[in-house]
Amino acid sequence: MAGGGGNSLPSPSCGDDKKRRVCYYYDPGISTVDYGEGHVMVPHRVTMAHNLVAAYGMLGDMRRLRTAPATAAELADFHDEGYLALLQDLTPDGCGGDDGVGDMARARGIYAVEGKGGGRGVDNPVFDRLWDYCLRYSGGSLAAARTLGSGTADIAINWSGGMHHACRGGARGFCYVNDIVLAIRELLAHFRRVLYVDIDVHHGDGVQAAFEASNRVMTVSFHQHGGGFFPGSGAVADVGKKGPGRYCALNVPVSVGIGDEEYHRLFEPIMARVMEVFQPEAVVLQCGADSLAGDRLGELNLTTRGHAQCVSFIRSFNLPLLLLGGGGYTINHVASCWCNETAVAIGKEIPNDIPKHGFDVFYKNQEYKLHYKLETKHLHRNRNTANSIDGIRMAAMENLSKLKLEAAASVQFEERRHRSINVGDLYYDPREQEEEEESPTARLHRKLYFEPTGDQESPYTKHRCNVQPGESSSRKQRKLK
Q1: Over the stretch 410-468, which tens digit does the pLDDT of each residue have?
Q2: How far is CA 147 from the centre of its chain?
Q3: Whole-prediction pTM value?
Q4: What are phi and psi of 23, to 5 degrees?
Q5: Residue 290 located in a structural domain
Q6: 306: closest CA among 343, 261, 272, 336?
Q7: Could you give the CA distance from residue 273 to residue 250 in angstroms, rounded to a whole number?
Q8: Does 198 lie in the same domain as 223?
Q9: Pair (371, 454) in one structural domain
């Protein structure tokens, strides 16, 4: 069905309309991380999503997790210690010498960049505060997993996590440390079986490789495949290595241009059957937003509503759920997506009109709407057909029929050093008045419009009837026309 992509599903419901205890992790230190000029990975998208969540008034609907960077010892629960030692020592200035550091970095998939715009041609560059960045996003996923293990939350969110390509001894696909693997290993200390679901446009290869020998973790990845698309793995016939974990890897590859309706003709029946057969006790959902229409790298045609429908569907099974970020390279689309999925997690309806706040300029080209729409000419031609969708679904169901629940049901809990959880260390005390670290953009906006200096009245005070708190100057002009 050429040209059929991008059809929108109705607004996702919350499944069973039941409220959930949701906790939320945000580390403002990630907002200043810079992969380099020209690089498509922009961690500032997480700050944009956070500010949008705040603008919609959702922070009060969730318990906030303390900012808690991971430790090197926690990262070593999965990663090679030699690789971690290298990550700790890497700096942009330290890769060009004759001490062999640059060679060691390249052997691990990390490259120094030189000159203006050098980040464009390198997936995993060396940049300032690289090690700190890895500790911060990984710490968020570990903290979120521990809240689920403690039983104090039903859903935990860390939009800065979801780095699914990193492997034990190296970096890949913009990912340096695989926080997903670390979080799943933490969950395995508390739950007998953990299901990992990946709706990023790219195959979740790093997570599959980490657990393909285990029958306690099932990985399910829905991703674009074929035509040399990165990482090239994840064919429907890829069911993992021989051994107890065989068929605990399920791959659902799709072609360029798939839209909401066709995607959910695959997602919902397959995931319903996965739940029935594998019977997980907890779920990790990687919500990579590069599967959205209009992404700078992905070539699918999902809408924000169609993407969120996946979250809603998994939520409806009422299992402990960890929501993570991942890919996504059109940053205003990413922020819209993750803000909307925060609302789905909470069980809250939010309006389509983006509230006035200091980041309005980022949403101008989507007309200040949360659920942006693209013209047909900007969508990718749909290479999927009714027959190809049916064939993929039947192949996935056939693979699931070979997964024997008995093999996964008799496992014993792993003895882990992180079994004990101090809940008091996880959350901010509600009585604390936490001072949110304000972004430079929001601070400048606040000072310009709402903070007169000394006895001098702000030149904008008289316009307060026209400029609401957090409203940008561009929106003011639009309103006054």
Answers
A1: 444 554 444 578 888 899 876 664 555 555 555 555 554 444 444 444 333 333 333 33
A2: 18
A3: 0.87
A4: -115, 155
A5: yes
A6: 261
A7: 12
A8: yes
A9: no
Structural contact between residues 258 and 382, judged by C-beta atoms closer than 8 angstroms? yes
202 is in an annotated binding site: yes
Claim to verify: residue 452 and residue 421 sit in the same structural domain: no
Tokens found for residue 104: 């060691």
Q: What are phi and psi of 409, to 5 degrees?
A: -90, -20
Q: Which residues pair with 427 in a beta bridge?
A: 65
Asked if 102 and 86 count as a contact pair (C-beta separation under 8 A), the reply is no
Write the burial class of residue 156 (CB in 10 Å: 0-12 exposed, 13-18 middle, 19+ buried).
buried
Query: Considering 383, 400, 425, which residue would you say is the last residue of a domain?
Result: 425
200 is known to lie in a ligand binding site: yes
Q: DSSP letter string over 459-473?
A: TTGGGTTTS-TT--H
Task: Name the catalytic one among 39, 50, 79, 165.
Answer: 165
Verify that 128 and 223 share a domain, yes or no.
Answer: yes
Domain extent for 468: 440-480
| Calpha distance 289→334 (Å, rounded) | 6
Instruction: Give the model confidence (pLDDT) of 310-332 as tens digits.
Output: 999 999 999 999 999 999 999 99
388 and 244 inside one domain: yes
Mean residue pLDDT of the chain comes to 87
Are 67 and 132 a contacting pair, CB within 8 Å? no
| Residue in the block written with tokens 């609907």 | 61
Determine whether the annotation assigns residue 83 to a binding site: no
Residue 10 lies in a domain: no
CATH of the domain at 380: 3.40.800.20
How many residues comprise the chain?
Answer: 481
Q: Please tell me the total count of domains within the chain.
A: 2
Question: What is the amino acid identity at position 111?
Answer: Y
* Residue 126 located in a structural domain: yes
Q: Is the same domain home to 453 and 418?
A: no
Residue 11 belongs to a domain: no
Measured CA to CA, the distance from residue 215 to residue 229 in angstroms comes to 29
Strand order through the sheet with 217-224: 63-64, 22-25, 155-158, 321-324, 282-286, 194-198, 217-224, 249-254
> Is residue 50 among the annotated active site residues?
no
First to last CA, the chain: 43
Residue holding tokens 């939009």?
A: 159
Same domain? For 370 and 456 the reply is no
Nearest-5° Cα angle at 303, 299 to 308: 115
Residues 391 and 347 in one domain: yes
Strand partners, 369: 353
Please tell me whether 329 is known to bind a ligand.
yes
* Spatial CA neighbour of 178 closest among 295, 89, 83: 83
pLDDT at 478 over 60: no
